[in-house]
Amino acid sequence: MKSARRSALLAGLSAGAQVVLGPGAMAQAYPSRPIRMVVPFATGGGSDFIGRFMAQRLSQSLGQSVVVENRPGAGSVLGIEMVVKSPADGYTLGLIASSYTVTPSLYKLKFDPVEDISPIVQFSQGPMLVVVGKSVPVNTLAELIALARARPGTLNYASAGQGSITHLACAYFADMAGLQMTHVPYKGTGPALTDTISGQTQVFFSSTATSLPHVQSGALKALAVTTAERLPALPKVPTVKESGLPGYDVPLWHGLIGPRGLAPPIIERLASESAKTLALRETAEQLAHDGVSPALGGTPERYRARIAAEIEQWRKVVVNAGIKLE
């Protein structure tokens, strides 16, 4: 009898403890063990660098290891599937890039790209550079548009692969400007950049990190940046908007997500600690090496809205350009 009363008392105390453990206590208790950050890209690239940089800083501020696990494949879909199917306890997170908003138009996903995730925080943002080889007889984007209109179908534009963000960014530009250019997909940014420098292809919408050194050396000409703001490293290079296409704005960005149903206190803790890191001058200097800047002042709600809006934007581009994976 005494044993039964003792068991009942312990059960009651346990239940009471769960009630007392409110949102603030939950945030303080998290994390109590190492966190896994799934990076759905290969090691050594720009996305991997940003993931590892933020994982290291979060390890320090959270007091628990944040371990990067690279899971590339199927345009990042394989790694993201692992995240969305994980328990919503905050111990499996995922890094996504702006290319995440392209994949729903090209792949048959086994999850809802908006509803089955918990957006946490956007880490970075930055432009692509519209570059041409030095042998291409243009010095401005307006001149490139005029040349492409005068020679429909004869200008080749490179990309890092069929359905890549570099492919869709240029296809979007060509559609808005009413141009006919020939797409030449490569297996990665490196060979696409090499052939643009050599003149095999004429145009490339490149990540800033990979093309900026070649612009500075004179091997490539930068005609525009794809975001609404100019690039501090190239202040004289205008935006695509300023060059005659006012509706064009294509940023590159990275951010952190978790599975659907992640508790708000956990989201708030991760977002808060990330914001502290992103506000540091050291962070801006480190991310500048990859051609991006810290994303400051965002919220999880705004991040979700960006993801949803870009998915619809790229869906229209894919349909209009008739883009399919080969």
Would you write up a description of this structure?
The chain has helices spanning 2-20, 23-29, 46-62, 77-84, 141-150, 165-177, 189-198, 208-217, 264-278, 281-288, 300-321; strands at 35-39, 66-70, 92-97, 117-133, 156-159, 182-185, 203-207, 220-225, 251-259, 293-294. Strands 1, 2, 3, 4, 5, 6, 7, 8, 9 and 10 form a ten-stranded mixed sheet that branches. It has 326 residues and is α/β, with parallel strands linked by helices. It has two domains: 31-126 and 251-321, Bordetella uptake gene, domain 1 (D-Maltodextrin-Binding Protein, domain 2); 127-225, Periplasmic binding protein-like II (D-Maltodextrin-Binding Protein, domain 2, 3-Layer(aba) Sandwich), CATH 3.40.190.10. Helix 2 (23-29) crosses helix 9 and helix 6 packs across helix 11 (300-321). It is built from eleven helices and ten strands.
Beta-strand content: 15-25%
Rg: 23 Å
Name the CATH superfamily assignment of the largest domain: Bordetella uptake gene, domain 1
Major pleated sheet: 10 strands, mixed
How many strands appear in the DSSP assignment?
10
Structural class: alpha/beta
Poorly predicted runs of 5 or more residues: 1-21
CATH architecture of the largest domain: 3-Layer(aba) Sandwich
CATH topology of the largest domain: D-Maltodextrin-Binding Protein, domain 2
The average pLDDT score comes to: 90
Helix count equals 11
Shape: globular
